[in-house]
Fold this sequence. Notes:
This protein is an alpha/beta fold. The chain is 42% helix and 17% strand.
Amino acid sequence: MTSLDSVLVFDKDGVRLTVEDAVATVTLTNPAKRNAQSPALWRALTEAGRSLPGSVRIVVLRGEGTSFSAGLDRQAFTPEGFDGEPSFLDLARGSDEDLDAVIAEYQEAFTWWRRRDIVSIAAVQGHAIGAGFQLALACDLRVVAEDVQFAMRETSLGLVPDLTGTHPLVSLVGYARALEICATGRFVHAEEAERIGLANIAVPADELDAAVRDLSAALLAAPRDAVIETKALLQGVSGRSYEDQRAAERAAQARRLRDLAGLGD
Length: 265
């Protein structure tokens, strides 16, 4: 629900963006279809990322209703597809280059959540299936309700997860468990999600919003530049050796010390 103090930035194609001080909330707004996803919704999510004011430090992603997102709207696989959109069957008949470009455009809705100038939190209840699971994985942090049901169903449909979810999934739970989750398409519930690192916090459904508010407040308590530098350090770990990471820490700390001393650029 939009508070009286929040500013509505836009509300279209199943996505609403509101901003209240340093916290933006992106809400999926089609509970009647369990927030099923479509290319129009993905474009709206991309626009949400581009529309964030510079004052925003925290972005909360949530879904209205009982489900976070039940995944891709199956209408995409019908010959008719969506109004004004090529069906997925039509896309499959195109060239490799055209298909790659279309999927890359879809992926943009899932990439901006890890920008270094923000911390993104997915508040997840009920179903988070396929594209819904990948959207939750796109965020930095996940707070889940006890009724959450994660599942990667693409493989069981003869497809692969292609909306940027494979990298964070392996980073969070490791290759073997990620393979098992994707290849079986099974449900991962709240207790397991928290235990294996998919979820930062699991709470009763009626406490989900409060838990997200508390986490947001804790994140905002730290100076913004320190959080940005720390996030950059942590994001770069997998691509650096131990010695390279030590050097990156020294460089980041030098910047912070100079800024605190008023000697920054």
